[in-house]
Amino acid sequence: MNLIGNFFFGLLLLFYCSSSILAQQHTLEEHVLNSKILNEEQKISVYLPEKYGENSDHRYPVIYALDGKYYKQMVSAVIARFYGDWLIPETIVVTIDNENRIRDYTPSPHATANVPSGKADAFLDYIEKELIPFVDSNYQTSEFRILEGHSLGGLFSLYTVQARPELFTAHYAFSPSLHWGDNKTVEKIITYLSSRKSFEKFIYMNLGDEIIKSDYESRNTMSTSFLRLQTFFKENSVPGLRVKSEILKNLPHAATNISGLVNATNELYRNWVLPFNVMERGPEAISEHYEKLSTDLYHEVKPRMEPINYAADYMTNGVHSPEKGIKLLEYNAALYPDSAWVNFNLAKGYRQREEMTLAKKYGQNALKLIAQDNEELKSSIINFLEAL
Question: Is residue 4 predicted with pLDDT exceeding 80?
Fold first, then answer.
């Protein structure tokens, strides 16, 4: 790319990032669920993307975050920052203000903990039979769900992998307390996954400075349990299962959830962004990229109109390759023939090439497809056609 191309592309990127900062805003809705399973009230907070509801047919993935009363602001802000920058799909965040985390997150009692515990299956019943149905019936959700938790919440997230394998697509576990209950959860996960011929799930787990042994913790059972599971994942491959496991030894226990959420989200959506070298190779490469993304996320992800349109601008004006640019606009129109916005962009592309007949054709198509309440776009299309 030459100097002028670099400058122009830099302006495009600056505009793109500035716009995304505004797009990260979200709406908060709070609910109190009267759980019959737990026989108590459970509070949840639901964070919605700024443009939520504009398309009634659109379905959003959902991340369920444990310990919401402590981490709701962090989780919602990080996820909003990601989708605000187009790094992940727009996502609904549901934070769970659990009332008794030791009781509800632990699958079994612990020999040295003289407190109520071991009710994880009951809490999973609440999530499966009351919480998720409530969220699904009140919001535009997809079946792509993520469960994330820290410490005992991380234990619970990993326990759910084998206890309710169909409930979530992805599991995040930050400094999971896998030693709880004499390491039984680790052994259950290993036994379950060893029996599977395939398992289309994503797991992220990390550990911080708990990995370092000290005079005060000579057995260091937390790290021993983590390393046992980590070794299993390294030595055994289950078709479909993607695992990211890392040790952040410079981070204390309390901080692994922040870095972990960023790292887990980056890894889960590692192919969400359309790379520049793929843009440059054109429609066939873009289709291959989205096939790879679909494999990553275990469901079909159609090439998205906004990145393709951005790629067309980049090819036309950034690297001065209008032939490649128009092919991308045509590719976008073939994918989204009923989109007024896509047809209008193709019309503008033809006008730039001075192909006025085609510019008029697609401008008129866009005008026919425009939604009644989109006066701004309608006005732009009318002005465009009048100027031809």
Answer: no
| Percent with pLDDT over 70 in the chain | 91
Q: What SS3 string covers 259-279?
A: HHHHHHHHHHCCCCCCCHHHH
- ∠ Cα 49 86 281 (to 5°): 150
Cα(46)–Cα(52) distance, rounded to whole angstroms?
12
pLDDT of residue 167: 98
pTM value > 0.85: yes
DSSP labels, 279-308: HHH-HHHHHHHHHHHHHHHTS--PPPHHHH
Distance (Å, whole) CA 170 – CA 161: 9
Within 13 A of 206's CA, how many CA atoms are on the CB side? 27
Q: What is the C-alpha to C-alpha distance for residues 91 and 162, in angstroms, rounded to an integer?
A: 25
Worst-scoring range by mean pLDDT, 10-19, 248-257, 339-348, 365-374? 10-19
Write out the two tokens for 283. 């429609």
